[in-house]
């Protein structure tokens, strides 16, 4: 049985993943034409490369259809319920940094903390007749974070893109989204709450806890671990 | 592990017990409009209930409990007093523990109206106590109404009391607020700066400097809260003595009569809780009249704060002491405020509870062995 390694199939995340493995003595390359999603792994025997959209890698890991996968820790924690029991984070890879944060309009001079957000939400609901809307695509992470913080009287509205624009478009009052430099937030007159960091994400090598693995597959994993210096 | 058929048979027995106690059997739809439940419980309910969508009716929820639809039914056309019983599945989404059931049967008993809340509390408690008497369960009781009264009794502003009341059911946030209002946690630097700016430049100048107005939360909304922050900063902290009284109440765990005696002592310094204590006294008398041994009945002032947040009076649960792994076999409480919200201004006193037949069956099997 081969060890299946899922890596992002395109873009900067793919290039950086290939670079990271190369730096650790494992050559990964795509094969065939630019458009063909196939590749090979050199340096360790018995590994099959699976090129996938980064967003699908958490699901494949959780289902046990791939043994290893590279994706953002934000995606794993958002998309896999009880993720710690389904996958294991083997190694943070030092790229693909992004912070999942809560941001509110800069004109909210009275709001700087989650405590303020909670109080503002209560007053907003009383004045406007509905719960304060927070636009996001990270529903689970945001909900758990706000529950831990004891924030009430908010509702999450789904936003799969251009989330920073939702406040100006009156479809949300605040947002929870990924940011790396904060540039887009500033351009849209938003500010990050001082205690509004939900998750600091980076590309991470994950291992499925449920993928079936025979002796040959385990041998490949040990060889790869040694080469990558995991657990050392 | 009991089969579904066995559980259903057990549910039928409990359902018959409730009907024989004079309750009218009722049914509710499995699919409930999600909006009502979301407005009541907030976004957290999404983690605990299944949400599905209907192309015409919008978001629907598989009923996570019966109380809300039964209240709605009663508020539409119920008599006074009215006793209802029901039996059926409830659905609970599990995001953490795959071993917890995501659907199970509940049998419930709800009592609406009447003019003697103490007697109603006692009737419902005694019903479940008798139903479960073969299993030697430990009963836990509490009183959210007492906590609400204690918060109202604090010598501080209405705004602070409202903020504390809103978070009675979120103990950690409640604690943080109490620390702040009591002057025991430091004011965040950003708040200090903001207050200084407001003092120096005024609300309008602070707003002008903050950024362009965007979104539905208006400049007036922000100005109103800035004014509220200034007003609150000018208020003295809640006194140490008052915070200690409240903490004393919150941490109280005693048998009911001892608890009441202790609370009477506290009421000397916090007279606002006296009416709640009179109600507690009346309830204990009514429980004794129902044959409950109130000398042994546990009272835990913070009981029920982390469960469903609609209880606002007497709360109770029945636990199998030898099986700490099991959830409460039965639980319930008073929820007058919920009837006011769902009745659009009209309110009816209401108290009720639910029992889980599959747990009763588990205990029956253990008792038999």
TrEMBL record, chain A:
Catalytic activity: 1-(5-phospho-beta-D-ribosyl)-ATP + diphosphate = 5-phospho-alpha-D-ribose 1-diphosphate + ATP
Alphabetically ordered keywords of this record: Amino-acid biosynthesis, Glycosyltransferase, Histidine biosynthesis, Transferase
Entry keyword Transferase: yes
InterPro entries associated with the record: ATP_PRibTrfase_cat, ATP_PRibTrfase_HisG
Domain ATP phosphoribosyltransferase catalytic: 54-218
One cellular-component annotation, GO: cytoplasm
Pathway stated in the Swiss-Prot or TrEMBL entry: Amino-acid biosynthesis; L-histidine biosynthesis; L-histidine from 5-phospho-alpha-D-ribose 1-diphosphate: step 1/9
GO process terms (BP): L-histidine biosynthetic process
Family annotation (SUPFAM superfamilies): Periplasmic binding protein-like II
GO MF annotation list: ATP phosphoribosyltransferase activity
Pfam families: HisG
Native source species: Rhodovulum adriaticum
Name used for this protein in its record: ATP phosphoribosyltransferase
Organism lineage: Bacteria, Pseudomonadati, Pseudomonadota, Alphaproteobacteria, Rhodobacterales
Protein's job: Catalyzes the condensation of ATP and 5-phosphoribose 1-diphosphate to form N'-(5'-phosphoribosyl)-ATP (PR-ATP). Has a crucial role in the pathway because the rate of histidine biosynthesis seems to be controlled primarily by regulation of HisG enzymatic activity.
EC code(s) of this entry: 2.4.2.17
Keyword Amino-acid biosynthesis tagged: yes
UniProtKB/TrEMBL annotation, chain B:
Residue stretches spanning the membrane: none
Gene3D superfamilies from the UniProt entry: Bira Bifunctional Protein, Domain 2
Entry-linked InterPro entries: aa-tRNA-synth_II, aa-tRNA-synth_II/BPL/LPL, HisRS-like_core, HisRS/HisZ
The UniProt record lists the keyword Transferase: yes
Organism superkingdom: Bacteria
Annotated ranges, domain Aminoacyl-transfer RNA synthetases class-II family profile: 19-357
GO molecular function term, any single one: glycosyltransferase activity
Positions annotated to bind L-histidine: 65-67, 92, 106, 110, 305, 310-311
Record-linked SUPFAM superfamilies: Class II aaRS and biotin synthetases (SSF55681)
Subunit structure: Homodimer.
NCBIfam families: PRK12295.1-5 (NF008952)
Similarity comment: Belongs to the class-II aminoacyl-tRNA synthetase family.
Record protein name field: Histidine--tRNA ligase
UniProt organism field: Rhodovulum adriaticum
Lineage, opening ranks: Bacteria, Pseudomonadati, Pseudomonadota, Alphaproteobacteria, Rhodobacterales
């Amino acid at each position: 049985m081969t060890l299946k390694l899922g890596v992002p199939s395109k873009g900067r995340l793919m290039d950086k993943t290939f670079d990271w493995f190369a730096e650790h003595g494992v050559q990964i390359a795509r094969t065939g034409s630019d458009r063909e999603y196939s590749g090979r792994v050199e340096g360790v025997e018995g590994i099959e490369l699976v090129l996938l959209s980064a967003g699908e890698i958490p699901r494949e890991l959780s289902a046990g259809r791939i043994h290893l996968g590279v994706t953002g820790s934000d995606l794993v924690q958002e998309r896999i319920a009880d993720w710690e029991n389904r996958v294991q984070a083997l190694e943070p890879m030092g790229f693909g940094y992004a912070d999942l944060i809560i941001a509110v309009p800069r004109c909210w001079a009275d709001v700087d903390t989650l405590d303020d957000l909670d109080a503002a939400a209560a007053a907003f609901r009383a004045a406007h007749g509905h719960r304060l809307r927070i636009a996001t695509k990270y529903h689970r992470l945001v909900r758990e974070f706000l529950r831990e913080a004891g924030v009430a009287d908010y509702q999450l509205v789904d936003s799969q893109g251009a989330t920073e624009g939702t406040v100006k478009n009156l479809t949300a009052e605040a947002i929870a989204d990924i940011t790396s430099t904060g540039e887009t937030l500033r351009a849209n007159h938003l500010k990050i709450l001082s205690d509004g960091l939900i998750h600091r994400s980076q590309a991470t090598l994950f291992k499925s806890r449920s993928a079936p693995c025979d002796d040959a597959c385990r041998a490949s994993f040990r060889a790869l671990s040694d080469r990558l210096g995991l657990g050392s | 592990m009991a089969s579904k058929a066995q559980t259903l048979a057990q549910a039928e027995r409990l359902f018959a017990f409730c009907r024989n106690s004079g309750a009218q059997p009722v049914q509710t739809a499995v699919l409930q409009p999600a909006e009502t439940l979301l407005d009541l419980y907030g976004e957290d309910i999404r983690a605990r209930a299944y949400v599905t969508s209907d192309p015409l009716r919008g978001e629907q929820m598989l009923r996570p409990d019966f109380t809300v639809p039964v209240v709605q039914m009663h508020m539409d056309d119920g008599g006074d007093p009215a006793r209802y019983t029901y039996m059926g599945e409830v659905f609970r989404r599990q995001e953490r523990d795959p071993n917890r059931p995501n659907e199970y049967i509940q049998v419930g008993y709800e009592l609406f109206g009447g003019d003697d809340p103490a007697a109603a509390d006692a009737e419902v408690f005694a019903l479940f106590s008798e139903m479960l008497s073969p299993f030697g369960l430990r009963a836990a009781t509490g009183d959210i109404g007492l906590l609400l009264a204690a918060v109202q009794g604090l010598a501080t502003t209405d705004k602070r009391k409202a903020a504390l009341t809103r978070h009675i059911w979120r103990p950690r946030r409640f604690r943080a607020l109490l620390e702040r209002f009591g002057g025991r946690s430091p004011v965040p630097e950003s708040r200090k700066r903001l207050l200084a700016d407001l003092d120096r430049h005024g609300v309008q100048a602070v707003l002008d400097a903050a950024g362009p107005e965007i979104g539905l939360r208006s400049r007036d909304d922000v100005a109103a809260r800035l004014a509220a922050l200034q007003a609150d900063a000018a208020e003295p902290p809640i006194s140490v003595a008052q915070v200690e009284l409240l903490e004393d109440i919150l941490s109280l765990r005693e048998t009911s009569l001892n608890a009441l005696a202790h609370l009477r002592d506290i009421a000397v310094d916090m007279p606002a809780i006296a009416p709640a204590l009179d109600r507690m006294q009346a309830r204990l008398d009514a429980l004794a009249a129902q044959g409950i041994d109130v000398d042994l009945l546990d009272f835990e002032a913070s009981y029920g704060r982390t469960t469903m947040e609609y209880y606002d009076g007497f709360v109770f649960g029945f636990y199998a002491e030898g099986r700490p792994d099991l959830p409460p076999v039965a639980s319930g409480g008073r929820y007058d405020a919920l009837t006011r919200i769902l009745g659009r201004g009209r309110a009816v006193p209401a108290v009720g509870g639910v029992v889980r037949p599959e747990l009763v069956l588990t205990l029956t099997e253990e008792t038999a062995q």
